[in-house]
Design brief:
Order of helices and strands of chain B: HHHHHHHEHHHHEHHEEHH
Number of domains of chain A: 1
Radius of gyration of chain A: 18 Å
Distance between the termini of chain A: 36 Å
CATH topology of chain A: Rossmann fold
Oligomer: heterodimer
Largest sheet of chain A: 6 strands, mixed
Helix content of chain A: 25-40%
Structural class of chain B: mainly alpha
Strand content of chain A: 25-35%
Radius of gyration of chain B: 22 Å
Number of domains of chain B: 1
Shape of chain B: globular
Number of strands of chain A: 10
Largest sheet of chain B: 2 strands, antiparallel
Number of strands of chain B: 4
CATH class of chain A: Alpha Beta
Order of helices and strands of chain A: EEEHEEHEHHHHEHEHEEHH
CATH architecture of chain A: 3-Layer(aba) Sandwich
CATH superfamily of chain A: P-loop containing nucleotide triphosphate hydrolases
Strand order of the largest sheet of chain A: 6-7-8-3-9-10
Helix content of chain B: 55-70%
Chain lengths: ~250, ~400
């Protein structure tokens, strides 16, 4: 399996506080990975750096088979390169319908002129219908997404990410505030997505991570503390000390 | 399946029908061709109002849909007016000069004519030389192109600088105020080449036209109605599709749109420039009806009024912007024109010329607090529809 994203020796500090400290991280082409760690471990900052929101002070981020450096690229460019991001709070465009949300995310030319003259073709609408089915929102396509339940909004956002057809999906706490049934469905969507692309899930909830049944990276104070299966890392004394022991 | 643009937006058709009917009624009752119930000066007021509605539609596009509160669009409006004013004033003066010089014994040379025109136009600012920017004032086609190009170019450069640095929200509003203030101060200078605080005048006279003002006013009224109709249709089309989705997305959550892979700055710049061009056209139609343009027209307060009209009308829906602008600007000219009767309370007399601004400010506050949908929201009550349908 080839490496899709390689983060090496990345550090960033805010006002003297080192949020990320010499972090190195790799993920392969079609892999599901859970990133866990206590509050302030740098999970969200890690995502900010990869998606271009935060510029690292030092280190390298190498992307894809062409080994492009992501440092210095704008958020939009990184997104177009194939990295999709789901935020902790569901952020869909609440005043627009589910269909409009999905159409906007669909992998198409993003230039203003192309978008101005865009008319959804039959395959586009079919793809939207397919995505809606995947995330269980077929009946809600024409509804304004602000009316959806919290769980449905989370799925819509995942659906929008899938519509982007990214090669790497960064998902921040997807199960937060979900009912057990909704969690199960979310797990299924993520596991399915990881068959064809890399998926990184940042999560607090150990039960949810266990269900994902994948390799786990433990972050602590901005660096990788341990890596391996969930059982492996939970037996690690360092991990127990900083995270599970509390 | 996707239906056609008009089928998805029935309100556009309703608006165009009402506009056409209004134009017809005014024409029939005007002095120029019709019954004569509507005075020529009122036809001009109505025509000017249509131009204000057009810039309001542009304002709604950039503020109501893209969420950028620009408080500088009257700069573009004024520039459009100046561009058309230069041609009108030059050609008109040329005509007068030529006819007066031809009474002499020898026919005047082109140099003499040029000098006489320069003296006529710039004598008021103590000069008789044509500034460089008047180089094309004799070309109708070029000056008409400038109506769109000059505001467009200014918006492009200003917007590129502002959006690239990710200036947003109230900071951008302040920056646009600074832009329009800067332009106004520049134009106030005699050395600006646009006659300083005198501005350009006599714009109601079309060169080579002998028709009376009662007829000319109708021509401009029709042109204004046509421009509003076309502008409305264009903007409604722009916001109806995926482009509309994206800019509304930028309004609601800019960062999210960025992470979807859209270059937010390009979209903002495109909308800013497009609306500046529309504003330029609206201004170019407005000032020949007003007859005069001077730097006070692009003072910062003008652009703030524009935002107030759109807010009172209801932003995020185009007909709201039109209703608000038509209503407030007409009522405003009634109150400030001294036509409103003063109210004598015994101990105090309410003079509307003084009190109108307070009334306007109060209604702006009330609309913002209690009726964020504005006057356009009333349409919802009638049609029982939720949200905006454009």
């Amino acid at each position: 399996m080839s490496t899709l994203l390689e983060v090496s020796g990345v550090s960033v500090s805010f006002d003297g506080f080192r949020a990320i400290n010499n972090l190195s991280f790799q993920i392969g082409d079609a892999e599901l990975r859970a990133v866990i760690g206590p509050n302030g471990a740098g999970k969200t900052t890690f995502m900010d750096i990869v998606t271009g929101k935060t510029k690292p002070d030092e280190g390298h981020i190498i992307w894809g088979s062409m080994s492009r450096s992501l440092i210095g690229m704008s958020e939009a460019k990184i997104a177009r390169a194939g990295i999709g991001r789901k935020f902790q709070k569901p952020t869909v465009f609440e005043e627009q319908t589910v269909q409009e949300n999905l159409l906007m995310a669909l992998r198409k030319d993003r230039g203003p002129l192309a978008v101005l003259f865009f008319k959804p073709s039959k395959p586009d609408l079919e793809r939207v219908a397919e995505l809606a089915e995947e995330i269980g929102l077929t009946d809600a396509l024409m509804r304004v997404s602000g009316e959806l339940s919290h769980g449905q909004k989370q799925w819509l956002e995942i659906g929008m990410l899938l519509a982007q057809e990214p090669r790497l999906l960064l998902v921040d706490e997807p199960a937060a505030g979900m009912t057990p049934a909704e969690r199960e469905k979310t797990t299924a969507i993520l596991v399915e997505a990881a068959k064809t692309r890399a998926v990184v899930v940042v999560e607090h909830d150990m039960e949810f991570v266990r269900r994902l049944n994948c390799k786990v990276t433990v972050l602590h104070e901005g660096a990788v503390l341990a890596e391996g299966t969930l059982d492996h890392v939970t037996k690690n004394q360092d991990v127990i000390d900083v995270y599970l022991g509390r | 399946m996707e239906r056609s643009f008009i089928a998805r937006n029935p309100s556009v058709l309703v608006f165009l029908a009402i506009l056409a009917l209004f134009t017809l009624v005014v024409t029939v009752f005007a002095e120029g061709f019709g019954v004569g119930l509507i005075s020529t000066s009122f036809v001009k007021t109505l025509g000017k109002t249509l131009c204000l509605c057009l810039i309001a539609v542009a304002m709604d596009l950039i503020w109501g849909y893209a969420g950028i509160l620009s408080l500088g669009h009257f700069a573009f409006f004024g520039l459009g007016g100046y561009m058309v004013g230069m041609w009108l004033m030059y050609e008109r003066t040329k005509q007068i000069v030529e006819s007066s010089l031809s009474e002499g014994i020898l026919p005047p040379t082109p140099e003499e004519i040029e000098a006489a025109i320069g003296n006529q136009i710039f004598g008021v600012v103590g000069s008789n030389e044509f500034p460089v920017i008047w180089a094309f004032a004799d070309s109708f086609v070029l000056q008409m192109a400038f109506v769109v190009l000059v505001p467009g170019l200014l918006a492009l450069v200003f917007g590129w600088l502002a959006f690239r640095s990710r200036v947003t929200g109230v900071y951008l509003s302040i920056l646009t105020q600074a832009m329009t203030l800067g332009l106004s101060l520049y134009l106030f200078q005699n050395a600006s080449g646009l006659r300083g605080n005198n501005g350009l005048s006599g714009l109601q006279n079309l060169p080579g036209v002998t028709a009376p003002q009662s007829v000319v006013s109708l021509w401009f009224f029709w042109a204004s109605a046509l421009a509003l109709g076309v502008g409305y249709l264009l903007v409604a089309w722009v916001v109806s599709g995926k482009f509309g989705s994206v800019i509304r997305g930028i309004r609601d959550n800019e960062a999210r749109v960025r992470f979807l892979g859209y270059s937010v700055e390009s979209y903002k710049l495109a909308v800013f420039t497009l609306t500046a061009c529309i504003a330029g056209i609206a201004g170019a139609l407005y000032y020949p009806q007003a007859g005069i343009i001077n730097p006070a027209e692009v003072a910062p307060i003008a652009s703030i009024y524009l935002a107030v009209w759109v807010a009172i009308g209801g932003r995020g829906r185009l007909y709201g912007a039109v209703i608000g602008t038509a209503f407030v600007s007409l009522v405003s000219s009634w109150f400030t024109g001294g036509q409103a009767p003063n109210v004598n309370l015994g101990f105090y007399t309410i003079k509307w010329v003084d009190w109108w601004l307070i009334l306007l400010g109060l209604s702006f506050v009330l609309v913002t607090l209690y009726a964020p949908k504005g006057m356009g929201g009333l349409v919802d009550l009638i049609t029982r529809k939720k949200g905006s349908d454009i």
